[in-house]
Amino acid sequence: MKITFLDLHKINTRFETEFQGVFQSFLDSGYYILGNSVTEFENAFANYCGVKHCIGVGNGLDALRLILEGYKMLGKLTEGDEVIVAANTYIATILAIKQAGLTPVLVDAEAETFGFDCSKLEQAMSPKTKAIMPVHLYGQITNMDKVNAFAIAHNLLVIEDAAQAHGAKIPNSKFQKTNTGYDKSSHFLKAGNLGDAAGFSFYPTKNLGALGDGGAVTTNDEELAEVVKMLRNYGAKTKYVNNLEGFNSRLDELQAALLLVKLKQLDSDNNRRREIAKMYLTQLSNKKIILPTVPDVDAHVFHLFVVRTDSRDEFQQYLTKSGVGSLIHYPIPPHRQKAFSEWNQLSFPVTDRIHNTVLSIPISPVMTNEEVQRVIEVVDSY
Ligand SMILES: *Cc1c(COP(=O)(O)O)cnc(C)c1O
């Protein structure tokens, strides 16, 4: 039995008939940019996340960048301001900060949860620090109580990188950053509603994935929503009237229509991912393999199931030979990349250790129990 790391074809053919209907209506509409499907999806996704506003944009990187550009336009950020970000994040978070003319300040991670090491936040502060970007890496909401308490104490904007965490949720908390919180009565708050604004990606492999590129900004901040909506479309509120120096980063109309179909399946897909994760967490027993720490299963949507081992490369070769797909998320941390040569001498020991030991094993809503059992058998025989 061969188990691929992620079968995107199988994930998407579940919707084949609906997709075909959607494409026909899209074609027949004669309206291909920022049409009804984008608006409908924005409303549906805002509602899903429990936020007031959702703005569809071109991809996840742009979502994060446009939030930062938006805050610059509103005078809440200025070129050269510092933004605290996790050293072990995917490179997009850092690129968004740099492209917006701001300065990323990296903070080392915690090996167990892959989130910020919150004890290191204080020393990352300077008079120029204006924002913090928590990343819900691998689908697990990072320690938002601590991050928000820190942000409140230092008057920082909180911008979530929620690109891997569609649908993850935590109990409603007194440390909620936004006093504009939309759904105060709710017992849970979802990723995308845990700070001042959040960026999502709908890259095909994400828990809510398009059949191409896509992204969204979510926020309860009316002013920011309005600015981002202009920025994504050449800075115009009305066609050909350009209030701001904008960008071209719109959520594609067809992708929005497809995402509307898939959004209905998201909770059930996430639950299936949790079910598989529980099987891994309770049944895997190989002493050489360190399992992820999951304090709250609702706060995790298992975009990835990431284990650690000192013999990672050998373990991966063994899995490949045994017919089990795996990937490394990620092989090189941002501060070791050639693109950021100015950081190559910096030291983030936990981040380095994470990148040298992590391996993602298969998890997806379309995996069968037999496939899961086979992965467990193979991993435990290593
Ligand atoms: C996927 C991802 C992004 C970027 O999304 P794109 O749609 O590829 O631009 C940003 N941050 C994280 C953590 C991601 O996983």
TrEMBL record:
<dbReference type="InterPro" id="IPR015424">
    <property type="entry name" value="PyrdxlP-dep_Trfase"/>
</dbReference>
<keyword id="KW-0808">Transferase</keyword>
<dbReference type="Pfam" id="PF01041">
    <property type="entry name" value="DegT_DnrJ_EryC1"/>
</dbReference>
<dbReference type="GO" id="GO:0030170">
    <property type="term" value="F:pyridoxal phosphate binding"/>
</dbReference>
<dbReference type="GO" id="GO:0008483">
    <property type="term" value="F:transaminase activity"/>
</dbReference>
<dbReference type="GO" id="GO:0000271">
    <property type="term" value="P:polysaccharide biosynthetic process"/>
</dbReference>
<keyword id="KW-0663">Pyridoxal phosphate</keyword>
<dbReference type="InterPro" id="IPR015421">
    <property type="entry name" value="PyrdxlP-dep_Trfase_major"/>
</dbReference>
<comment type="similarity">
    <text>Belongs to the DegT/DnrJ/EryC1 family.</text>
</comment>
<dbReference type="InterPro" id="IPR000653">
    <property type="entry name" value="DegT/StrS_aminotransferase"/>
</dbReference>
<keyword id="KW-0032">Aminotransferase</keyword>
<feature type="active site" description="Proton acceptor">
    <location>
        <position position="206"/>
    </location>
</feature>
<feature type="modified residue" description="N6-(pyridoxal phosphate)lysine">
    <location>
        <position position="206"/>
    </location>
</feature>
<dbReference type="InterPro" id="IPR015422">
    <property type="entry name" value="PyrdxlP-dep_Trfase_small"/>
</dbReference>
<protein>
    <submittedName>
        <fullName>Aminotransferase</fullName>
    </submittedName>
</protein>
